[in-house]
Design brief:
With 545 residues, the protein is α/β, with parallel strands linked by helices. Helix content is 45%, strand content 14%. The chain has two domains: 203 residues, HUPs (Rossmann fold), CATH 3.40.50.620; 193 residues, Orthogonal Bundle (Isoleucyl-tRNA Synthetase, Domain 1), CATH 1.10.730.10.
């Protein structure tokens, strides 16, 4: 038995989650976690509110709310949307006014300071006279000096590169839009260059990281890495616990790594685990992180270097799975331009499984992909209704009319059915597992698997004329064997459908945890256990159509 700690990028609690958010780390981490549980492994799937982001301050000011009210309101929205999408987290914590979180981050920061890891520097910074505010992160906007796309200070979402805000082209204040002046401040910086050799060695040993992430990391370490600011002159965030810096706060992106540690530790404490965050490495625990490509630098460079620097046995991210941007009707999601579909709104109209399936089929794993309502509805009709629903419903109708005990024919399941199940199991093991993890390919396997079941039904079962009854019943049992395997195959992506099918077929599995992946090889089809047939049609429409 293995243990995985799975994290998804902490959502900024200044708004709800739109479909672009759901298409990324939250769904991917959920699918991976569900599969690992089916493999009999322990999984702790966690995230937390990114409550100290500058976006909290800017959004609260724009709305005329207190930051506390904003975070409380949108934390509930985010959690409700994740629940509506059948995304099952073990723990979701908040950092705002969370003294346990704040104390741990400050203690972590102070340890590095006392070890002499940080350096003090005088640094130029933009300042808005109109807002009386130093400008960094979302407080300043401009054009990326590398790719010329619109960017915030310190990070370009488009190319994933870190920028020095002072180098932004045509900078403006993110609060009022005025052109800033240039000032300076004395702050603490993390000399990442000191860890370049360790980073190079670590990147060379990664096998599961996607090519875009590895190329970015290799590009970063192919030249001297600039010092990264870990403090800013601001009142928003966790105060720097060092004398002489009391007017500054800890950079929120630096905060995120110890934040993951304290969130994990909280779960371990609540559940009385024998593990602690300090001995996870000794207990063969694997850290798996899911995130958008735009967060690559922070997770794959800053946090990894931080782990090297603290050197206290904390977990390194063995696997980092990134996704690219998910577009809406071929344009980037934008709340300011009202170009977004909120997960909570769409999930009131469509079942979670149908959205999960479509997002997997069109997932932005290696390149930007597009969400289209027209395409979504077409796939729901062509694949979920015409292939999935109609195939299984027709099969169940035939079974209802069959008086023979099909369990007598399990020893005669034909080779094609066994080969199909074996192929799907092997393929899905690869695409649900971490080294070749792919929502797109896993959902494609499910699509092809159902197409094979449909073809088998249409060509081998329905045309019963001139077929020996024994052969017909063997074929019917073979199809039942394939459809019953779907309970297991679909569970990570379509959990509600999987449970509905399990109930309809009367499979003796009391909970999701008992859907052990290895039991696929032991499937026997028994039509005498079929129940709730009356509910199959309406229940399946609820969870799929």
């Amino acid at each position: 038995m293995k243990t995985f700690i799975v994290t998804a990028t902490p959502p900024t609690t200044n708004g709800d989650l739109h479909i672009g958010h759901l298409s990324g780390p939250y769904l991917a981490a959920d699918v991976f976690s569900r599969f690992q549980k089916m493999k009999g492994n322990n999984v702790i799937y966690s995230t937390s509110g990114d409550d100290h982001q500058t976006y909290i301050a800017t959004t609260a000011k724009r709305k005329g709310w207190t930051p506390e009210k904003l975070v409380e309101y949108y934390t509930k929205k985010v959690q409700d949307t994740l629940g509506a999408a059948s995304i099952n987290l073990n723990i979701f914590s908040n950092s705002l006014n969370n003294q346990e979180h704040i104390n741990f981050v400050q203690s972590f920061f102070k340890k590095l300071y006392n070890k002499g890891v940080f350096v003090e520097k005088q640094k130029e910074i933009h300042f808005c006279n109109n807002c009386d505010q130093y400008l960094f992160e979302s407080f300043i906007k401009g054009e990326c000096p590398y790719c010329n796309e619109n960017a915030s200070g310190n990070l370009c979402e488009a190319c994933g590169r870190i920028n020095d805000p002072i180098e932004l082209i045509n900078p403006v204040c993110g609060l009022c839009g005025e052109t800033p002046t240039i000032s300076s401040y004395k702050g603490l910086f993390f000399p990442l260059e000191n860890y370049r050799d360790q980073l190079v060695e670590y990147y060379n040993s990664r096998v599961s990281w996607r090519p875009h992430l590895k190329e970015l990391c290799n590009w970063i370490v192919s030249r001297p890495i600039r010092d990264y600011p870990v403090t800013y002159p601001t009142k928003w965030g966790i105060p720097v616990p060092i004398k002489g810096y009391t007017n500054q706060c800890i950079n929120v992106w630096f905060e995120m790594y110890p934040g993951h540690i304290v969130t994990t530790n909280k779960w371990l404490q609540i559940n009385g685990s024998n593990f602690s965050v300090e001995n996870l490495c000794e207990n063969n625990v694997t850290l798996v992180q899911f995130l958008g490509y735009d967060n690559s630098f922070f997770n794959a460079v800053l946090h990894v270097a931080t782990c090297f620097a603290i050197d206290e046995g904390y977990l390194l991210p063995e696997h980092i799975i990134t996704n690219e941007f998910y577009l809406l009707e071929h344009a980037k999601f934008s709340t300011s331009r009202d170009h977004a579909i909120w997960g909570s709104d769409l999930l009131k109209e469509v079942p979670a499984d149908s959205l999960r399936y479509y997002v997997c089929r069109t997932n932005p794993e290696h390149t930007q992909t597009n969400f289209s309502l027209k395409d979504f509805n077409q796939i729901r009709k062509d694949e979920l209704e015409d292939t999935w629903f109609n195939t299984i419903s027709t099969f169940i109708e035939i079974i209802k009319e069959t008086s023979m005990d099909l369990s007598l024919f399990n020893d005669y399941i034909d080779l094609k059915a066994k080969a199909t199940v074996s192929w799907a199991k092997k393929s899905l093991e690869s695409f649900y597992d971490i080294n070749h993890f792919s929502l797109r390919q896993a959902s494609q396997v499910l699509h092809e698997y159902l197409q094979i079941c449909k073809d088998y039904l249409d060509t081998q079962v329905i045309p019963v004329k001139d077929i020996n009854m024994k052969i017909y019943l063997q074929r019917l049992t073979s199809l039942g064997y394939m459809i019953q395997a779907l309970i297991y195959f679909a569970q990570p992506i379509l959990p509600s459908f999987s449970m509905t099918l399990k109930e309809a077929l009367g499979v003796d599995v009391t909970s999701n945890q008992n859907l052990n992946w290895e039991n696929i090889e032991k499937i026997t089809f028994d039509n005498t256990n079929i129940n709730v047939i009356k509910n199959w049609f309406c229940e399946t429409k609820k969870v799929m159509q």
